[in-house]
């Protein structure tokens, strides 16, 4: 009988995980065993998050996992919530359409920038003045 291989090969590319780990300035060298443990742990963690998010999705009778489902799954598991919840983006607030688009005034552009419609309107004013 052929013996089964006892070591498991991670599904994530080890080189990519190593590059991500090296983004930390305090890490100089990475042992191959440590790289495998971190990679496998990451896979297990993402599998856990996917399972918990799928449960929330099924509870809400949806077919697609979205950010709200992931946030709910993270909130339900206290150890995960402690370190991950602040890193997740906030869900988009529902937009209320009480006014028409023409009634709304556009927000001012960031400091040091110009809106593109201002650029074109200034060009028209110059041509009107020269006539």
From TrEMBL:
One of its GO terms (molecular function) is transcription cis-regulatory region binding. GO terms for biological process: regulation of DNA-templated transcription. Keywords: Nucleus. It comes from the Eukaryota. It is found in: Nucleus. GO terms for cellular component: nucleus. Residues 11-74 form the Transcription factor CBF/NF-Y/archaeal histone domain. Residues 83-131 are annotated as: Disordered. InterPro entries: CBFA_NFYB_domain (IPR003958), Histone-fold (IPR009072), Transcr_DNA_Rep_Reg (IPR050568). Residues 114-131 have a biased composition (Basic and acidic residues). This is Transcription factor CBF/NF-Y/archaeal histone domain-containing protein. It comes from Arabidopsis lyrata subsp. lyrata (Lyre-leaved rock-cress).
């Amino acid at each position: 009988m052929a013996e089964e291989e006892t070591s498991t090969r991670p599904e994530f590319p080890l080189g990519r995980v190593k590059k991500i780990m090296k983004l930390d300035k305090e890490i100089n060298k990475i042992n191959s065993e440590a790289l495998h443990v971190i990679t496998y742990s990451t896979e297990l963690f993402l599998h856990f998050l996917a399972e918990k998010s799928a449960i929330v999705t099924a509870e809400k009778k949806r077919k697609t996992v979205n950010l709200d489902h992931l946030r709910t799954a993270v909130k339900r598991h206290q150890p995960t919530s402690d370190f991950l919840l602040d890193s997740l983006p906030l869900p988009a607030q529902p937009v209320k359409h009480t006014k028409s688009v023409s009634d709304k005034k556009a927000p001012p552009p960031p400091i040091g920038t110009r809106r593109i419609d201002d650029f074109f309107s200034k060009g028209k004013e110059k041509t009107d003045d020269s006539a």
